[in-house]
Hints:
Blueprint: H1 2-14, E1 18-19, E2 22-23, H2 25-29, H3 31-43, H4 46-54, H5 60-88, H6 96-106, H7 108-121, H8 126-153, H9 155-161, H10 166-170, H11 175-183, H12 186-198, H13 203-215, H14 218-237, H15 245-259
Antiparallel strand pairs: 1-2
Helix pairs in contact: 1-3, 4-5, 5-6, 5-7, 7-8, 8-9, 8-14, 8-15, 11-12, 11-14, 12-13, 14-15
Amino acid sequence: MAHNGTLIVDDVEDDSKQRRGKPCVHLIYGVDLAINAGNALYFFPLLIFKDYQDNKKVADNTLIRCYQLYTQELLNLHLGQGLDIYWHQGKKNPSINEYLQMCAYKTGVLARLSARLGALLAGAPDQFIDHIGIFAEAIGVAFQIQDDLLNISGEEFAKQKELMGEDIHEGKRSLMVIHCLQNAPKEKADRLIEILNSKTSDPVIIKEAIDIMRASNSLEYSKQTAKDIVASAWKDIDPLLPQSDAKEKLRIFANFLIDRQI
């Protein structure tokens, strides 16, 4: 529910046209209802905690930690979104490390929250809760990088969004953009910034921006970065998880997130 809430609000903020192949909520029901519904979805999960409390399903100290985790991670999520908005308004070109930190907050945080809550409610020790959270955050970051890649290169992905290169139209400073700005010739880097700041919907100009990034090998760099993040995260969590069918599914899932085409 919280994740879907972020998507509804994100589509309003980005003035997106489609989500999962259909018109965005704000285009069907209006911006006012979309914002209200998106915000409400942040709070509905708290009813689950209330049910735990009312029916004594969870010890009080565990329940308090659940509330603390949930509120802190939602604050982190909004901080990450705030950074993303600030950058694609053209107010700053972030470094690669700043971008990865933004992804950890904006996208990795919900995966981290899910993993940490699950481990906490299962009675896992604190050290394991921290480790599984770090793993989930890492694959969330890799997911975002793949999402950004598909946004400018995935034909099936574009069908779900109506526009190939929607992130370019929004002026987003993705990992590909940052790498390109650091490695492309100055005139090409300046042209890319000009296109991003124009918020163009012209497919010819959007393709020009994509070609500039391709020429600097920024797509390949980003793809490899996502793979390295997942590989490193799995190496750290592998010895902490007992061999099981569930563990194998988790490994397959992590790799799927960076190999998917939609």
